[in-house]
Amino acid sequence: MAVNVKERRPKMRRFHQAKWDEPIIFELCQEGERGILVPEVGEGIRREVGDVLASIPQGVRRKRPPRLPEVSQSRVLRHYMRLSQETLGTDLNIDVGQGTCTMKYSPKINEQLVRTPKMNEIHPLQDEQTVQGILKVMYMFKQILKEISGMDEFSLQPGAGSQGIYANASIIRAYHEERGEADKRDEVITTVFSHPSDAACPRVAGFKVITLYPDEDGYPDLEALKAAVSERTAGLMITNPEDTGIFNPKIAEFVDVVHETGGLCAYDQANANGIIGITKAGSAGFDLCQFNLHKTFSSPHGCGGPASGPIGVTEELSEYLPVPVIAFDGVRYYLDYDRPKSIGKVRAFYGVPPVVVKSYAWAMSLGAKGLREVAEIAVLNNNYLLNKVLEIRGVYAPYAKGRRRIEQVRYSWEELSKDTGVRSEEVGLRAADFGVHYWTSHHPWIVPEPCTLEPTESYSKADLDEYIEILKHVSYEAYSNPEIVKTAPHNSTIHRIDHRPLDDPSRWAVTWRAYNRKIGKEAEA
Amino acid sequence: MKEAKTIVYPYIPNSVPAVKERMLKEVGALSVDEFYADVPAELKVRGGLNLPKPFLSEYELRRHVEGILSKNASCGEYLSFLGAGCWQHYVPAICDEVNQRGEFLTAYAGEPYDDHGRFQALYEYASMMGELLEMDVVNVPTYDWMQASATSILMAVRITGRREVLVPKSIGADELSKIKDYCKPWIELRLLDYDLETGQLDLDSLAREVSSKTAAVYFKNPSYFGFIEGRGEEISEIAHGHGAICIVGVDPISLGVLTPPVEYGADIVCGDIQPLGMHMQFGGGHAGFIATRDEEKYVAEYPSRLFGVAPTSVDGEYGFGDVAYERTSFALRDEGKEFVGTATALWGITAGVYLALMGPMGMQEIGEGIMQRSYYAITKISEIEVVRAPVFRSAHFKEFVVNFDEAGKTTEEINRELLRRGIFGGKDLSREFPELGSCALYCVTEVHTKEDIDRLADSLREVLD
Questions:
Q1: What is the mean pLDDT of residues B412-430?
Q2: A288-291 and A311-313 as β-strands: parallel, antiparallel, unpaired?
Q3: What domains can be seen in chain B, in order of their start residue?
Q4: A161, A399, B164, B208: most buried by Cβ count inside 10 Å?
Q5: Each residue of B161-203: pLDDT tens digit?
């Protein structure tokens, strides 16, 4: 009789990540091999110019070739294919575990649209009439962002969210300088559940940073803000909803309090996924905001960039935007450099145009109704997940008890940890054995043994159920056989890393040459 | 009345109405509005966003976007001599093959276990850059070269505890603008003269400005104008003599033929890896690197992530992780070094692929080939009587300045006429560097053939006749 395969499948996926045990690229070196040949210059040119290297001043001419690996082409390809297989991209997994990162589906069509000569092979300094296509996309995308945010003008220049936050801090500084108040207004206020860059970037811009802690219920504390503002307040730079997934219901009052003291308010909308089409930064009175196109707007994360962090501002602040601003005179699209009060350049040229094209295509595939559907389903998915996670032994969702959340939740495995000795981080390493990511949280860990889950709109109910089963299974193991969790991962590419050398100056090795000098063959010799 | 059609979005599986209903029921909510209970009514969008009608089918979307982008004219259709920070180099097929792999393209911030390949690829990128630069520490790349130089300057300021930073006036206007904005609260910037004949940094000017207050001297080699700065050793000695740090910005594709700046005394080396396998993308292919020696005082000042190799519980297995993570803003928020976040990791991986393909011979050959072509272009252009090229009497790498003061036409007019002949002339520097007169910065790389360069020279002659 035939075996019923379907019936015999276990509940948990029998995952094992690719494990190639691939050497470091330098170990593949075979002297003399070539990966690619470069175009010959030809006799005509060679004859004409003679020995060009002889013209290089002695002290600047390279004496020995760089000690790069020598590897044939197919071996280079195979090496990187293997490394790619050992990387768990969103294309492969139910990526709800990297909370705050908005790991949604990045449509393949959008990638194809930018990987063409009409996009790849254009130089930023070409005559404007030869780049009307890309300027139009950038302009139209700017219009979409204006409508979504309620802000009056946008710069697409910042290269990612943090650079956008920095640019906003710089604009806040320029605004107060213009008023002759820069020396006096030297403080920026943020909250501890806003992204670390909301604290770090204004510091780079020269501000002292005041960090507010939440009230008992996990909401941003209006009384704490009132106590913190003064004539020294330059601005407020915050996330909303915060990393806890809690929306600040008093957000407009926060803005008012800061405005009353003469400060500006910048809205970090890195994670706008749950509120796009629901509420606008402008409605709450914000003066500045930024979006992360590699998050809410679906451009792929690329292992950490390329990315894009457009900034939006009110009419009043638009004169401070980085130059140039993409503009349209009714006939042609052009680069507007006429902004005497501009903070100047934030990133080279005009930002990261291919990311803008992908985000534009994504927004145009959805429209107003579709974008609202994105937010609503992201929030539905999150609350569905929340409901199910709370049924798992050892985990809870601190703060805002009994309230719904927006697009993500910061959970705590405090109870599991106390009961079993298993740490949140270890829960994640065991979850990896079933083919998913899991992220604890930004520091400082106000929530003990934290984990942050953000399901986005990209996952089906069945996907979410699978993720929940994994967490449930790991919790069960923690209570019944904690050793298996504490020694995880077991099905991953590699095993437990000894982290100590990474913080020891005598042993850390950021490059292979440093490794060889300190630990490897040279050190032994 | 006709009922509004329900759309099921391919990117949103749970947009299926029945599934939505079931999920709402499971969480005990009547509608999604309940999830937004904390959003005050007066802040809610009423009547929906006012956005253009979407292209719901993938086919229509493709038609729409391709239709717009088809208005671009590429550097394949035109013959381009533009550079000035973004350069047309050949991108090997394997570079694109690797960076379009979904695993790399869509990964982000996973652990060193589930994202082992990402860590190894970026570690190897840093390692190959380390060989090119002969330095032991290279960061996971930042946004671009101007962020790299601005951060290098702030690192030097923190290391020395001093504020004055010396930079030659020959630096490009955009990079100068970036440094002025980003470093504003922390530095006093002093601009050094350059020799109008040779372009070389004026050592007298350096000697006048340098002091025990100097945190760093920063110069580029090759310079923004494309010439090779020949006295790096003297510059770094002067800087070191006053306890200052020497920062050198370098074009990595020149390093098969030019010596790594550490050899002439650079303490921090920075630049952009766009030439190493990234398409120009209208400026979207940039990524900045920062390299130093392996000294704790330098490592401690990097804001970027640094990946290091570490053993695992299994013998002979490579593991990776963050080196000295506690210095970052991820660990310490405003107490960390500047800030860190998403930047340009995929371009780092790609540059690694490029260097692995090129190897030592490839880098040497491409460097020499670029120089040969640019020298040939200089020769051909300088044969035109009313044109002066190169403006600076120095050795050049791939860019050089052409002066049109005697041409009877402005650079802008010349570029317009070249455009009509299918050529993008060099970047007009007339406004950026008025002291140079009517000038353009021309760029020649390995993509240019003898015929291409001859065509440029012939066209220029035609335009100026």
A1: 98
A2: antiparallel
A3: 93-355 (3.40.640.10), 368-464 (3.90.1150.10)
A4: A161
A5: 999 999 999 999 999 999 999 999 999 999 999 999 999 999 9
